[in-house]
Amino acid sequence: MRVDFHTHIIPENFTDLTRHLSGDRWPMLERTCACGANIMVGGKVFREVTDQVWSPGKRISDMARESIDIQVLSPIPVTFSYWAPAEEALTLASIQNDFIAETVSQYPDKFVGLGTVPLQDVEVATREMDRCIHELGLKGIEIGTNVNGNNLDDSSLISFFEMAEKWEVPLFIHPWETLGKERTPRHNLMYTVGMPSETALAGASLILGGVLEKFPGLKICFAHGGGSLPYLLPRLDQGWKVWPHLRLLNNPPSYYARNFYFDSLVNDPINLKYLVDLFGHDRILMGSDYPFLLREVPPGKVIDDTHGLNQDQVEAMLWRNALRFLNIPIKAGVKG
């Protein structure tokens, strides 16, 4: 059995749903052919996509070919729209959450859904999280790595994390609006360097800002193997050691990092083995970033190619950890 924890989806009629919103920053889906489109932002091409990004049928066909049993569906981060008025962003979030919930209801054996919330207003975000989990039946919430330049330890977000812990809502943190954007337009460095760096900053902020110490029950998974965070932990620990006047924590950062989960999208078995050795195999969820160009093909390849793993570790990373993270009971008798 294989569960792909990291996949993205968007409604095919997305542009029609956003035309009535004010301003020109809203992402739109501009069709280029029967099976392709551009995601447009501010009149410019943000990303080229295929019908894989909106067609459940196409996804199921790909899943069969690549031996994937279940995909976990999440919104495309460019649609977070934290910059927008909260109520308009809520409209967009609600549209996507309803679409994902409906897709899951049509294909309950193939898909599990994550929702999105307008984090620029924590009260509104918490209300929509409540609806996603307790009304729509979605299994978690995807959030960005910052909110309009504020790191995730910002005081305005504390009540959101408090309720996520109380309701046992899994959070999938995905990079967006990356740091250093003015220096990364060439060579697509925003994707290859900016995103991993942005993810590291988000993780370090949650740790050093005391969010994990305050809410130890939070379930958080980082995209792309946590970016550069795992490799920076020794440096973060050293900073904690030599700057005691800055400490907000009772333990070094690496102590709290062990509470995180990470998807397996690290592109190299050496990197995956490092994650396993550092955090344990039970903290890693197979994720491919389907259907984008940087995705892993076939999903789970890096796990398959990593030497020194036993069958139990492999099966845990390929599917069991994802279901456990999402609070989905594992049926008796189900095996990989």
Automatic annotation (TrEMBL):
Pathway: Secondary metabolite metabolism; quinolate metabolism
Enzyme class: lyase
Swiss-Prot/TrEMBL keywords: Decarboxylase, Lyase, Metal-binding, Zinc
EC number(s) from the headed UniProt entry: 4.1.1.45
SUPFAM superfamilies hit by this protein: Metallo-dependent hydrolases
Domain of life: Bacteria
Every Amidohydrolase-related domain range: 3-327
Record note on quaternary structure: Monomer.
UniProt family annotation: Belongs to the metallo-dependent hydrolases superfamily. ACMSD family.
Protein name, per record: 2-amino-3-carboxymuconate-6-semialdehyde decarboxylase
